[in-house]
# Entry
Amino acid sequence: MSAPSTAAAGRLAPSPSGRLHIGHARTFLVAWWRARSRQAKLTLRIEDLDAGRCSQEHIDGVLEDLEWLGLDWDGSWRLQSTGLDQMRAQAMDLAARGLAYACTCTRKEIAAAQSAPHGEEGPRYPGTCRGLYKDLDSARRSSGREPALRVLVPEGELHFVDQLHGTRAVNVQETCGDFPLLTRGGEPSYQLAVVVDDARDGVDEVVRGGDLLDVTARQIVLQRLLGYSTPRYAHVPLIVDAQGTRLAKRSAGLTLAELRARGVRPSQLVGAVARISGLPEAQEGRPHDFCAAFDLERIPAGPWWYDTDASSFRRPPYSPPEAWADVPE
Ligand SMILES: [Zn+2]
# Structure
């Protein structure tokens, strides 16, 4: 990867499946500071593929919250769902090259065939349908089922560097299995969508939440198979609740809308995030005020929680387990 150039590009990629909470604010501020401080283009892509969970109301809410924080982006924002054809085309290209195959297994069959630990995408796929069908059509005909398309994940170890977590070594087949590219309904998977979109937007550095550290290997596998270059990565440590649990989408009292309703000012929140992001002490400010001093390498590791009474972040009231460096699946 060459030094920052006119082609440098980052992205903000919120999912409109709920209101943004304080953890999103932290991640998006860091991504914004990083892109702006290296003069990279910054795109906003709204990841709306999960049609059952995403809504227009939440899209409006995401835009409102980002603007309230004082974040901007270059060009028009875009819905991820506008790029489905290109994603499907890339998946079919992999299939035509023998790098993806039809799978007619049900979730139940996969679960029954595999007793290995289950990741957040369910059980690791054991490869049952590898080499079984010539293509999607023949799989459909001979099984009477609508097939999914899975990528043929190579054997071997993959190494990548995360700028905040160091070098990661992943046995890809053991960790990822042959993960889906297209669902049985023909919808692009999250991994495929992200990889195609990042390439399409020329993203050379991905700054996102630490909960996505574990899916990075899958995305790098896809980038290599599709002939894309791999961006640099930085996974921002998560914000947790007072008990040390990762914030969910519906974190009561911690959405930006709720904080705003309680009278929290954006400058207050930006100042609080700056203080836990390696930036010089300052009480309040707009995102731009912190740009010149921002340094990705100075972001402290480990989780924080937000004390709404004090309107500031604190370390969790326990010593975090080692696993916090590796966000659990
Ligand atoms: Zn199968």
User: Anything to note?
Assistant: Residues 102 and 136 are 5 Å apart (CA to CA). DSSP finds ten helices and 13 strands in the chain.
